Amino acid sequence: MIAALALAGGVYTAFTPGAFAEDSTPLSSAAQQGKELFDNSCISCHGRDGQGVAGRGPSLIGVGSASVEFQVGTGRMPMARQEAQAEQKKPQFTPDETKQLAQYIQEIGGGPEIPAGELKLDPKANPEALARGGELFRVNCTSCHSFTGAGGALSSGKFAPSLHDATPEQIYAAMLTGPQNMPVFGDNQLTPEQKREIITYITVQLQDNKDAGGIFNLGGYGPATEGMAIFLVGITILVFTSLWIAGKS
């Protein structure tokens, strides 16, 4: 038995280094630059090779480049301090540096990526895309982001951010990765084409036509809310005017 174990150990020792050498893939040039940025700015919270640090930051293995491009590209990461949720702020990395960080995380752990090509459809060439995108947005997004995309409060100090300044890349990445309290909309929940339709609706209807209904855009529901506001204000003024006249008489 001892001889058999020694033989098995010798065979394993002889062949294992070669197997590991075959599996180790060198990082691309962009990923190597991303690793330098990671080691200087992210390793204290996310650990060596993105493995995570208990009590500081989660593992980045499997989050993909899409998550990095959203979190770092919107300035949510790196966080200044632990809060209920990471808020958007001025990014600390340039777009090229963000791409390099994203490529590094993608190569060491894999995960979802933002697809290449145009993410916003042309409503003139595809008129039905805008209507389908609006329907998908109302079914999947309005419960948190509101019908106007202005966002809304959630529990425990958290909130759904406004979509009025979000880029197509940020919206697509958010749907792929589910940042903060947002659910993940994988391709089995929303196909890539449906994601593009939602982006088309947000960018065309909610960003380009913010004041589509009503003069003051109260709530974004059109003239109905404005009519109600004018009615309440007008009735209040009439009541106080009547009381003033009655007091004078």
TrEMBL record:
It is found in: Cell membrane. Residues 1-21 form the signal peptide. The chain crosses the membrane at residues 227-246. The cytochrome bc1 complex is composed of a cytochrome b (QcrB), the Rieske iron-sulfur protein (QcrA) and a diheme cytochrome c (QcrC) subunit. Keywords: Cell membrane, Electron transport, Heme, Iron, Membrane, Metal-binding, Repeat, Respiratory chain, Signal, Translocase, Transmembrane, Transmembrane helix, Transport. Residues 29-109, 128-206 form the Cytochrome c domain. InterPro entries: bc1_cytC-su (IPR009152), Cyt_c-like_dom (IPR009056), Cyt_c-like_dom_sf (IPR036909), Cytochrome_c_Oxidase_Subunit (IPR050597). This is Cytochrome bc1 complex cytochrome c subunit. Pfam families: Cytochrom_C (PF00034), Cytochrome_CBB3 (PF13442). Gene3D superfamilies: Cytochrome c-like domain (1.10.760.10). It comes from Actinoplanes ianthinogenes. It is a multi-pass membrane protein. Its EC number is 7.1.1.8. It catalyses: a quinol + 2 Fe(III)-[cytochrome c](out) = a quinone + 2 Fe(II)-[cytochrome c](out) + 2 H(+)(out).
